[in-house]
Amino acid sequence: YRLAPEAFFPAARDDVLAAFSWLREHTKGLQLGVFGSSAGGSLSVDVGLAEGVPTVSWSGIFDIRQWFADHPAVVAQPDTKTDFVKTASAKIDQGGRNDPFYKWFILNYVDSDETKFPEVEPFDRLTAQAGPLYLANSQEEIIPISGIYQLAHAAEKLGLPVTLQSIPGGQHAEGYLDEAWQGTVAFFAQYLLKG
């Protein structure tokens, strides 16, 4: 999918929805699910909401409006220490909370247009036709854990199945692979292999 700043929101979401549409067309009859981590975790939820398929999100970004309202004094700062092109994804953002970078990342994604926050968050697109959700997040990582609780609460109000995994520490996404993999596989087995 396209990345900011070359392509701002909703480009990435449009790309993954188009890719899934192509995949569904070319895999007729197969049970499909989606799985993503970090920004990909958010995008996997976008697909799950639109397509009604089982969805796994590790460290998806869901708490934006409330987080910004609660953190007005945080000054957005890019991460100038990490080479995001050359660094393995399991090594990126493994230092725990980094509020200045989180704020910068969100603003970079929407070209600093905070009016897009409601469109970026999944809550307004959540319906009873969405797929079951598996949401994992570390308790002290760069992505606020509050987002998975907000999304789970909204999904449960609609009767959607939700599995939450709160992981101790500050590891981000692939950084907690050992802790989340077994639950992820069990989730897909439950929803894709039934019947």
TrEMBL record:
Gene Ontology terms for molecular function: hydrolase activity
Domain spans labelled Alpha/beta hydrolase fold-3: 1-173
Keyword hit for Hydrolase: yes
Record bears the keyword Hydrolase: yes
A Pfam family this chain is assigned to: Abhydrolase_3
Keyword terms, alphabetized: Hydrolase
InterPro entries linked: AB_hydrolase_3, AB_hydrolase_fold, GDXG_lipolytic_enzyme
PANTHER family: AB HYDROLASE SUPERFAMILY PROTEIN C4A8.06C (PTHR48081)
Protein name: Esterase
Species in which this protein is naturally found: Lacticaseibacillus paracasei subsp. paracasei Lpp123
